[in-house]
Structure formats: structure tokens, C-alpha cells
Design a protein that fits this description.
- By secondary structure, the chain is an alpha/beta fold.
- 45% of the residues lie in helices and 11% in strands.
- The protein has 13 helices and eight strands.
- The strands form two sheets. Strands 2-3-4-5-6 form a five-stranded parallel β-sheet. Strands 1-8-7 form a three-stranded parallel β-sheet, with no helix packed on it.
- Helix 10 links the parallel strand 7 and strand 8.
- The relative contact order is 0.12.
């Protein structure tokens, strides 16, 4: 019955680590809601991402650290309930001092996630591809990571460190920070806003842990394809905001169409059908539990 995932958090955490050690590139789209996470699974992707920018935007907020760890954990649990895929979440700076980062780790463990990443920006943080970022001292981020490691109860839970130092202090500093973060216990590294393939290569040569490539649109990083990333030795291809941008673009177009045409009729060919939505929701599977919930026939073409 599809009320919840059929796998346990421990199984999903193990699956993520196995995928990262397989030598194959892990494709990780960002979900904009629990239903889109189910669609990511249905279409054959290997993992799901929850972007802090998307979670903030869903609340009508900019990505400047206004959300709280409890809000994010609650949204995460809604998502992990509906997918058998491992889910990685953006935990910003840990939502405060090292003790806050420690609590954040345990909240995200309890939410059924497979892992999280913590970044070295100062508060208020901002999108990693915008100007005006600042980073904390390397030693402060090391303390943040060590608190997270100490707080982790399940050793299978992935702790990834993100560094935004490339745009602030330069590539050499970003590499130096990445090494220090691995020494502090980070299982993987997220180097934000790299400029070109040569910089990807430099990070890969510097650390011997899984690396994430952030392929967000309209940013500083070139939109590398999966073949190029595999050749560079990267482990995760991240598409954090793609689905939100596509969906919101379609929503805006639909609203303009209704406003100008007075009907949604011309939009029908672009819509997900009722039958596809019901398939995604598993309506018929619920009938196996209680036939009263699925005792209707869909009209043709819906």
C-alpha cells in the first residue's frame, strides 16, 4: 500500500553510499514537493534532493536563511514518506552555532533522510551563485562539522560539507578548505560555483571523497553533461532548482492564458492528465486495501 515508502531510512542511507562508491554518476534532481519526488523515482532517477532555495521559495521566502531547522525537517519527512529513493537535503549553515548544527543532524536523521550538507557561509547566507557572499573562518566551519559528526547517531547518514570559498577567497582556498573539512569528518564535498572544467579537475585531484557538481541554471558553473562529469570523476550531478523553475514558468504561462483567453481550454494538451496523476498517486493500489476508494471509471482522455 503506497501510504508510505517500503524502505527504511537505514536501507536508503546504505543505498546512497553504495551508489557513491559504485563509480557511476548519481543523477539527483531537486524535488519541489513530495509528489515530484515520487515522479523522480517513477522516471528512474537514483536519488532526490531537497534544496534550501526551493524550500524557502515554497514558503514565499528568499534564500537568505529565514527558514528554520524544524520547518525543513517537517518538509523533509513529508518527502521521505513517499519515495524509496535516498534523499539528500540542504541544511544551509546548520541554522546557527555548532550546537544548532548538531541538533539539525539529529532532526534530519529522524526525518528519514539519507544525508545533508552544511556550508561555510556566514549568516544571513545567500544563493551560492550570487555576489556578496561571505564565508566563516575555516576553523569555525571545522567546529561546525565536528559537532555534526559527534551528533550523528547512524554512521550511515551522509555528512557532506559545502564550501562557498571559490567565489570569495579563490580556488586554492576552496581546495584547502575541502581538505580540512574531510579531515574534520565530512563524508563528501560540495564545491560551490566552480568556474570551468579545470577547476573541477583540481578539486577531484585534491580530495579522495565523493564530489558533487551543482548544475543550477543561470549560475556561475557551466552546464556540464553527465558524460563530462563522469570523465572528471564526479559522483553526483545535482539539478537543485530545475523542476521549480520549469513548474513556475508553466504556472505563470497558464495564469496569463486564463487571464487573456478567459478559459484554460488551450492549456489541456500541456497538462498532466487525470489518469497519469492517479497512476502516480497509486490510486489502484489503494483499492487492494479498500475497494471503496477506487470504485470509479475515468472518462476517456482524462
Amino acid at each position: 500500500m503506497p501510504l508510505h515508502t517500503r524502505t527504511t531510512p537505514a536501507e536508503r542511507r546504505r543505498a546512497l553510499r553504495e551508489q557513491l562508491s559504485s563509480g557511476r554518476l548519481l543523477r539527483m534532481p531537486g524535488a519541489m514537493n513530495p509528489l515530484s519526488a515520487r515522479l523522480i523515482q517513477d522516471l528512474g532517477f537514483e536519488a532526490v534532493y531537497l534544496s534550501g532555495a526551493v524550500l524557502a521559495a515554497d514558503l514565499g521566502l528568499p534564500d537568505i536563511g529565514l527558514t528554520t531547522s524544524v520547518e525543513i525537517a517537517a518538509r523533509a519527512q513529508q518527502t521521505t514518506r513517499v519515495t524509496d529513493l535516498p534523499v539528500l537535503i540542504d541544511a544551509d549553515t546548520g541554522f546557527g552555532e555548532p550546537m544548532n548544527a548538531a541538533r539539525t543532524v539529529q532532526l534530519m536523521e529522524d526525518a528519514g533522510l539519507a544525508g545533508l550538507h552544511l556550508e561555510d557561509q556566514v549568516a544571513p547566507k545567500r544563493c551560492g551563485h550570487l555576489d556578496g557572499k561571505s564565508v566563516v573562518a575555516k576553523e569555525d566551519m571545522v567546529r561546525r562539522l565536528r559537532a555534526a559528526v559527534d551528533a550523528r547517531r547512524d554512521p550511515g547518514f551522509l555528512l557532506m560539507a559545502r564550501t562557498d570559498a571559490r567565489a570569495v577567497e579563490g580556488l586554492d582556498a576552496a581546495i584547502d578548505r575541502a581538505k580540512a573539512y574531510v579531515d574534520a569528518g565530512a563524508d563528501a564535498i560540495f564545491p560551490e560555483a566552480l568556474a570551468d572544467e579545470a577547476e573541477y579537475e583540481a578539486l577531484r585531484a585534491a580530495v579522495d571523497v565523493p564530489l558533487l557538481a551543482n548544475l543550477t541554471e543561470f549560475g556561475r558553473t557551466p552546464p556540464l553533461g553527465t558524460a563530462a562529469l563522469e570523465n572528471l570523476g564526479y559522483n553526483i550531478a545535482l539539478y537543485p532548482v530545475t523542476l521549480l523553475r520549469i513548474a513556475m514558468g508553466a504556472v505563470e504561462d497558464a495564469l496569463r492564458t486564463i487571464a487573456t483567453e478567459g478559459t484554460q481550454q488551450s492549456l489541456l494538451p500541456r497538462m498532466q492528465t487525470r489518469s497519469r496523476l492517479y497512476e502516480l498517486l497509486g490510486y489502484e493500489e489503494y483499492a487492494a486495501f479498500d475497494s471503496a476508494v477506487f470504485d470509479f471509471t475515468l472518462p476517456p482522455g482524462t
